[in-house]
Write a structure and sequence with these properties.
- The protein is α+β, with helices and mostly antiparallel strands and 121 residues long.
- It has one domain: Alpha-Beta Plaits (2-Layer Sandwich), CATH 3.30.70.
- The chain contains two helices and four strands; from the N terminus they run βαββαβ.
- The protein starts with 13 loop residues before the first strand and ends in a 10-residue tail after the last strand.
Length: 121
Amino acid sequence: MAIEHGAPQIPPMLRVMIQFESTGWFDTTGEEKTQHILPKLNEVLTGWKDNGSKLIGTLDRDILTAGHAGSAGYHAVFLYDVPDLQTVTNMTHSFRATGLDRYFRLEAVLGRPFFLLEKTD
């Protein structure tokens, strides 16, 4: 028996899963990582707190993996509620603008809370 319902409604806050993959990171020295890349990465991620987004959770796959992302295509996932599409675009662009796209790849997946697990009246 099919459940009848209308088209999904776009929520006031978009649910965004950002897939984070290390790419050029593996071709850098420890000094580059600690003195240049990680401080810049921390600055960008900290800056996301000021754009109206709310971090819901993260997942790092490093418990059972090491090295390149492989077929999954990501090393970690960040889950946010984001106010609008432009903010998502600004978040991904922040990696380009700072040169972090040389070391990492981001991909945003848009959606909404799953209706059976989260009520969004």
